[in-house]
Amino acid sequence: MARGVGRPKKTDGGAKGADAPLRKQRKKKDKNAPKRALSAFMFFSNDIRDTVKREMPELEFLQISSEIGRRWKEISEEDRRPYDELAAADKKRYLEEKEDYVPDPSFESSKSSRKKKDPNAPKRALSAYFFFCNEIRDSVRSQNPNMKITEIATLLAAKWRELPEKKRVKYQKMHEEAKVKYQSAMDDYNTGKASHVDEDEDDEEEDLEESD
């Protein structure tokens, strides 16, 4: 009796061979980073999504989103006010948390997507936390000579969290003064960039006239 032909063995690659597209690696996110503030529309959406699902169970996900968007456009300014207030409060929360946010020293963000910075542009104002770190970093290093840079950073963050609000005022004032100086420097910088653009355009016009 002849043996039947067996099933072909599966190759290692299978359908996902060398030609299969590679998945993009997700950027790592710092879990301790403040959550971004929600907009008034997002608060409204979260509030009525279940209602829309219950009233219109036949709708798919994208259709539900469209229906929520349609209802948002139709509500009055008075009905929007509570959501505007929620959004304003959440934005305030986010800015406050961002001000006190201390990045995890072990967290490495992807630099590939960052735009190149103009080396001549003014440096951003330091936060109150960084003014504090700059003031005590050398002292902390001398007291802990065997600590790694990441360990020093963690210790500085702990000291900042333990610092009473009254003692933080000094560094917050330094931050506010630095912000004013930065804004003034940025105004001068942007004015300078605009004048350079005008000069380049004038040079191009002169070159065209000479070529004619």
TrEMBL record:
Any coiled-coil regions, as ranges: none
Annotation: DNA-binding region: 34-102, 122-190
> Record's SUPFAM superfamilies?
HMG-box (SSF47095)
Q: Does the keyword Nucleotide-binding apply?
A: no
Gene3D superfamilies (alphabetical):
High mobility group box domain
Q: Which GO terms describe its molecular function?
A: DNA binding
The record's annotation in CDD domains points to:
HMG-box_NHP6-like (cd01390), HMG-box_SF (cd00084)
- All residue ranges annotated as the HMG box domain in the record: 34-102, 122-190
**Listed GO CC annotations:** nucleus
Per the UniProt record, one Pfam family is HMG_box
Signal peptide residue numbers: none
Q: Which UniProt keywords apply?
A: DNA-binding, Nucleus
Annotated Acidic residues bias: 198-212
- In this chain, the stretch annotated as Disordered covers 1-34, 94-122, 182-212
Read off the InterPro entries from this record: HMG_box_dom, HMG_box_dom_sf, HMGB
Stored PANTHER family? HIGH MOBILITY GROUP PROTEIN DSP1, HMG BOX DOMAIN-CONTAINING PROTEIN
- The name this protein carries in UniProt is HMG box domain-containing protein
Q: What is the scientific name of the source organism? A: Globisporangium ultimum (strain ATCC 200006 / CBS 805.95 / DAOM BR144) (Pythium ultimum)
